[in-house]
Write a structure and sequence with these properties.
346 residues, alpha/beta, Four Helix Bundle (Hemerythrin (Met), subunit A), Rossmann fold, 2 domains, 7-stranded mixed beta sheet, 4-stranded mixed beta sheet, globular, binds 5-S-methyl-1-O-phosphono-5-thio-D-ribulose
């Protein structure tokens, strides 16, 4: 089901082309590069963002390093790959897809016997990560669309949309699948301060596809749930622990609390590559703290008094007791998560 949406990121003939999401919704601009360091910078600056897209971008950065290596012996090419991987690991700490994708690529390359073999293994694995992500999201859509009824109002936060993935998105995949099946519903998206992924990106995507969408401010969730009928919340995830703790864009945890208070089902949509089986508890998830200037300034214009800084946690953690279900490519996982997450991951 091709949507009226552009590809987030592509690797063609030794070049990576990605949408510069900092420019949306005002301009649909692409960056094209053959330099893996430029891709690492794009992840850090959030030109490419969203857990699965970060994973694909990291895999493509490694593919660029391998494709353009001048190394003559495989050990030398491997060392260059490790340097690239190390820099990528330092870009953003919370989305586990980044580390998952890097490990998968390195694993595929480690037994290469020549530079040519290493190059082929890295590029093919990176492309496979992208293909598999698109396919996983399509399946998330198929599993999740049954949750959406005709006439419903669905709430979401941030952008767990096509832009945040190879295609379809995670939280948006059930919306796109339901819409294609003729269901009509509307979406309320939290603007998602300070980077405004909801107002800028999710609103842009849904509007482009033709799904009615309205933006609410992050602090309006209480009054909106009191005044309007909200049938369902679907969010994305950056990392889910073995016990079902969900790290996602800051504001997700309060959204889950308000949803619980109002009896609104709260679902998380994520591919199994977002599940980190190595940790159990929420406080084990590294939470990214970004520069305060991203809060005190909007588009470079200062909105806070000079000399006052901001404390900016970019993610928060929702405990499993607030999560109704996790929509994965292998089906919807319901509580008890401790037991059922293992069924889709092992
Ligand atoms: O800081 P961002 O924009 O990378 O955060 C994105 C989110 O929190 C998404 O909900 C998450 O990565 C899932 S994307 C399918």
């Amino acid at each position: 089901m091709p949507l009226n949406l552009p590809r987030t990121i592509e690797f063609v003939d030794g070049r990576v082309r990605f949408i510069n999401q900092l420019k949306l919704p005002h301009a649909l601009e692409y960056v094209e590069t053959s330099d893996w360091r430029r891709v690492a910078e794009a992840i850090r600056r959030m030109e490419v963002r969203g857990a699965p897209a970060i994973g694909v971008a990291a895999a493509f950065a490694l593919a660029l390093a391998a494709y353009h290596t001048r190394a003559r012996v495989v050990d030398e090419a491997w060392k260059e790959l490790e340097v690239c991987a190390e820099e990528l690991r330092r870009t953003r700490p919370t989305a586990v897809n980044l580390f998952w994708a890097i490990n998968r690529v390195l694993e595929a390359a480690k037994s290469a016997g020549s530079v040519e073999e290493l190059r082929r293994a890295v590029v093919e694995t990176a492309l496979e990560i992208q293909r598999a992500d698109e396919e996983a999201n399509r399946r998330i859509g198929e599993h999740g669309e049954s949750l959406i009824g005709d006439g419903d109002t669905v709430m979401t936060i941030c952008n767990a949309g096509s832009l945040a993935t190879s295609y379809y998105g995670t939280a948006t995949a059930p919306l796109y699948a339901a819409f294609e099946r003729g269901k009509r519903f509307k979406v309320l998206v939290l603007e998602t301060r300070p980077y405004l992924q909801g107002a800028r990106l999710t609103a842009w995507e849904l509007h482009r596809v033709g799904i009615p969408v309205k933006i609410i401010t992050d602090n309006a969730i209480g009054i909106v749930m009191q005044k309007e009928r909200v049938d369902l919340v679907i969010t994305g995830a950056d990392r889910i622990t073995r016990k079902g703790y969900v790290a996602n864009k800051v504001g997700t945890y309060p959204l889950a609390l308000v949803a619980k208070e109002h009896g609104v089902p709260f679902y998380v949509a994520a591919p199994t590559s977002t599940i980190d089986l190595t940790i159990e508890r929420g406080d084990e998830i590294p939470i990214e703290v970004r520069p305060g200037s991203e809060v005190t300034e909007i588009y470079g214009v200062r909105i806070a008094p000079e000399g006052v800084d901001a404390l900016y946690y970019a993610f928060d953690v929702t405990p499993p007791k607030l999560v109704s279900g996790i929509i994965t490519e292998k089906g919807i996982v319901y509580p008890p998560f401790e037991k059922n997450i293992l069924k889709v991951t092992t």
